[in-house]
Design brief:
- The chain has 786 residues and is mainly beta.
- The protein has a single domain (35-47, 146-785), classed as TonB-dependent receptor, beta-barrel domain (Maltoporin, Chain A, Beta Barrel), CATH 2.40.170.
- It has a 24-stranded antiparallel sheet that branches. A 6-stranded mixed sheet has the order 10-9-17-18-13-14.
- The radius of gyration is 27 Å and the shape is globular.
Length: 786
Amino acid sequence: MTQRPDTLRPAGRPHAQGENGARRRVFLSCPVLPRPVLHRSYLLPLGLIAGLVTQVSAQGTLSGTVRDAATGLPLHGTRVELIGTRLGAPTGAGGRYEIRSVPAGYYTARARGVGYAAESREIVIPGAGTSTADFALQPLPVPLADIVVTPGRAGVSQDRSVSSATLSTEDIAVLPQLGEDIYRTITRLPGMATSEYSARFWVRGGPEKELLTRFDGVDLLEPFHLKDFDGALSIIDAGTIGRLDLTSGGFTTEYGDRLTGVLAMETMRPSLGRPRHSLGLSLSSVKASSMGRYAGGNGEWLIAARRGYLDIALKLVGNDQELSPRYYDLSARTEYRLGMKHRLSVHLLRAGDAVDFTDEFGRILESRYGSTYLWSGWRAQVAPALTAHTVASMAWLRWNRQGDARSIPDSYVIDDVRSARFAGVRQDWVLDLGERALLKGGFDLKALTAHYDYEIQRRQGDPTHIVLAPDGTSIGAYLATRVRPVAPLTVELGVRHDRHTYLEEETVSPRFNAALDLGGGTTLRAAWGRYRQAPGIHEMQVQDAEGGFRTSERAEQRAVGLERVFPNSVVVKIEAYDRRYDRLNPLYLNLTNGTAVFPEAEFDRQYLERLGGRARGLELVVQRRDGRRFDWAGSYSLARASDELVFFGTTPRARDQRHTLYLDFTYAPAAEWRLSWAWQFHSGWPYSLRRVDTLPDGNQEFVGTFEEIHGARFPPYHRLDARITRTFPLRENALRVFVDVFNVYDRNNPRGYDYVPESVNGKSVVRAIASNQLPFLPSLGVSFDF
């Protein structure tokens, strides 16, 4: 689209906002604080925002109909949007749409839907009143490469027309949320389990380390801030994400070296309009971002930086522990289009952390973490039927953790310094063989080096000092074919081969996926495959006195799902899955549920041999998210996840949730207002019960052992969150004010127990006192797009 000159806009009218959500947001809100520093005291909101004067522009309405150009029938569920803005609406009954509260000005309106060519036209909104624009879309055959053959796929996307998207970026902006963290916002998707204190999540019974995380084409390792506190935040700024796909099982052969699923994220794309910039300030961080285009629209850039200062926030809320956490992250991308067939890009992601901490027992922690990713991408249309995507990348990771606990009886000193370097290239090729077949193939080559220098000195026993410098290569290759033997059926067959020289190991992973279009908006999907995951060269358990690598873990996955899209925009999905682990490495587990900054030195550290495991379940999702006055979604999961342990038998996994229920609602009484509620429930997690002995004289004492591994259960968990959002369209900008309340009815959800001796009737008894998750937390904030 050619950008209209500003002289064509009426004086005082707003410029269009950025296409695909190019507007940036500035937040003022309460921070997310790690477990050891939160107390029963409520976090205070920032206070009322005073002196806010708004000049709302004249606004009108755009309405019309969208029809099939071939049949003339109205199209339900397509989307009409104003390019360069966040304004848009889906079509309802009769193919009608209505976009309200449109500031006066010149726009390009575009109608698009799955299976149809998009149509655009210039329109004018003169002011108050209604303008009309009708569309007739030409039907297109769905390309074979665009058919989703993977069950368990959900996502966060700017585009509401993507049928597999469960949340859009617009939904995230108005739904209740805790912090500005993309990892926390997607935990509403089915099959997810997470603690309130950590950004790490489990997917269908598998921990986050079993998930492949890919950001703008590069694979990320441990993408978390504050690792000493179980990764309280991710290093990805939620405001930069334009598209996200989470595949929770049965993923195809182009993804390897993981057991559970794939999380693929892409950053926003700027519009053809003027550049967009932002400055942000919150109680926990300050951030800035900029995005736009250059070279006549052939080039684009995006840069976003964030600096956290939770140490200051903790002082403001009266924290009585000596904790000073600081973090920063920076992401940047530039891309240039060479003609219509080639796109080159360069990317940078940098993150760092610093924590100084002294707890109530006098244990001292000083840690420094850093990660840097630098990569370039090349997308090429090599021939009319052949496309290629190449990613060349380098990464540097470092860990420096110093601990001193000489002030406690079981004293120790820890000196832990590690680093890892990665350099690699990945290529993916797709050959279109016509309407009924395509061929996919590619490889992934990495050169890996790591350095370990770990030492622990205990009060009793000899010191442990391990110095190692492993290196090696990791090579993966895959080949797959996707065919359509008959019109409604699409099948993908593939095989993957992986080799890790530092393990001296090779693995082969066959996989099968299929999708059957049953008509009437109903699709049946199924998947089967074998999956392998090798220990990373940076994952040697030197803190547990291990000086070598374990073998690759193995799992077999089966999944089948049915999806139905109804004419009233209601989507229903039901899916069953079964993941069987036939080889798992030993597990080092801290049996209490608290957060330990030196887990390897705690008394509850347990070495567990595992023979295998299993995660299985049934998920049901019912939702309607079409931007109307009342949106809603609900999901229910019936699941079980367990490990088969030597000596202990079948034991539930740490985030085993038998029953999980999510419900959320968004009500729009007017175009500028959004009222949202979100409620969740799940069965209590398992925990290991401490052993308490009763002596002959009736006194009780607890010992340093446990009755049974994960033999007890916490009470059921439930919580209600709420959010009110008010948007003010301003000249060339927009202002959004929100009030967010976490845990509205102040539910006490236990996450662990402390055992305290007490005197009752002259006898010493041991009482278990629950340490709870987050209490009632209100926050007030503002975001400014300019």
